[in-house]
Amino acid sequence: MTTPTYATARRHACPDEHRGPHGETLATIVPDGLDIAPACTVCRQAMRPVGGPLAGRWQADACCVPAGPGGTWAGPPRDPGACTRCFGTRLAVICVGCLLPGCDGGHPGGCAECDGDGTVPCATCDGDGHLFDETGQDQGLCPNSWCTAGAVPCPACSAA
Question: Of all residues in the chain, what percent carry a pLDDT higher than 70?
């Protein structure tokens, strides 16, 4: 069974702006099309959308479910309402790019060609930004109009 991947989402946070144990605002990501209602672990109020839509790639991962033999808890029972990974939904939303819950997906998608950087070394100047003759003398800036400091947009993931 494959887990669906969601491409758009919204950040949800406690309406009273409660903070977690490390001072971070209690917030999570809710993908569009995934019917979950996270609640604040402090006041148990329903979290509300904050900010605009997010673009990225997320999957839902089971959380706070019995994992022991016969569907029992392996260890002490957990309170999903106190879990800052799933916020009571029993589904932790995980960023496909970094595999972390709560990530807003605002980082490169992991292109194999450029390692998510968005650029590759310029073939014209071999990534130097300047042209050199066979004796090593500098012949000036790279003539490739797309080249910036020896890098050009990645042909695999950039439309430039």
Answer: 89
Q: How far apart are CA 137 and CA 24, in angstroms?
A: 54
CA distance 65 to 56: 26
CA proximity to 36, closest of 27, 52, 24, 47: 47
Query: Rounded CA gap, 109 and 157, in Å?
Result: 9
pTM (2 decimals)?
0.63
Concatenated DSSP letters for 62-84? E-S---SGGG--SSS---GGG-T
* CA contacts within 13 A on the Cβ side of 90: 6
Highest mean pLDDT among 4-18, 122-136, 139-153 belongs to: 4-18
Nearest C-alpha neighbor of 12 from the set 97, 107, 91 = 91
Contact present, 54 and 7 (Cβ < 8 Å) = no
Task: Tell me how far apart the alpha carbons of residues 32 and 155 are, in angstroms, rounded to a whole number.
Answer: 30
Rounded distance between C-alpha atoms, residue 26 and residue 15, angstroms: 10
Cβ pair 48, 112 in contact under 8 A: no
| 73-127 residue pLDDT tens | 777 777 888 888 899 999 999 888 777 888 888 765 556 677 666 788 999 888 8
